Amino acid sequence: MSDISAGSTHRLHEPLLRWYDANARELPWRTESATPWSVLVSEFMLQQTPVARVLPVHEAWLRRWPTPAALAAEPPGEAVRAWGRLGYPRRALRLHAAATAIVEQHDGEVPAAHADLLALPGVGDYTASAVAAFAFGQRQVVLDTNVRRVFARAVTGVEFPGTSVSRAERDLGAALLPDDEPTAATWSVAVMELGALVCTAATPACPTCPIATACAWSAAGRPAYAGPPRKVQTWAGTDRQCRGRLLAVLRDADGPVHRSALEAVWADVAQRERSLAGLLTDGLAAQVGPDTFALPG
Ligand code: SF4
Known about the structure:
The chain is 53% helix and 3% strand. It has 297 residues and is mainly alpha-helical. The protein has a domain at 239-294: Arc Repressor Mutant, subunit A. The radius of gyration is 21 Å and the shape is globular. 36% of the residues are buried. Iron/sulfur cluster binds next to helix 9 and helix 12.
């Protein structure tokens, strides 16, 4: 592991901040005029979903619901409908619940304090830190998948981080944060951007990387990953895929849907029933008649 000097003087800072300044993507939740609500919505949507898929949904969402109050005034089912095919649709319900809590507890303004953000439905430590940093310019340790991978490679010298965030990673993230608050916030998003654009999981572009000369993994000859097996996301034939198909039928309908329309999109009876039961339990669908279903009201 390379040495970590404290605060604002670490050798990774200058080249990475300069690279970010020249190469950052222009994303709507990063503009000067982006509201904290826009940032919060983006963080919900970006969990496990690529930027390209989030962009159109985020834009339509903000146009329709420019404030938490606008979203909270509509039924949760409308949030599920507008979520479209982003996946993991429980996030839509949680975002609606967060908007409701913001209206009820914070006069409709996204709170700035990490503890207040953390208390919102669907907001975990990562999202609270990200919103505090990116919407309010605070000095926060922000550890998403991309940041963890960059730190693992550049500083720790291994190809991938562990399966869950460790204490050592938090300490490392804190030690690497620039002292100055706005610079710290930029640093957090810069590391994230490097992981998304250059230090990608499968094909890191080391020859064009701004911190290549300081990278421990690269210096060690890019040794192969030797940790526990990494999770591989499967999709085809899973309950997740089945739930997605059923939900698409409900979302695309103007009113309640008969059971037969659900049967038409998934042949395996046991899996279909299990998935439908899951949607009902999660509040993503409602049974409105003996054999009819709809988005939640
Ligand atoms: S040199 Fe390669 S492995 Fe190291 S941080 Fe840059 S892209 Fe990642």
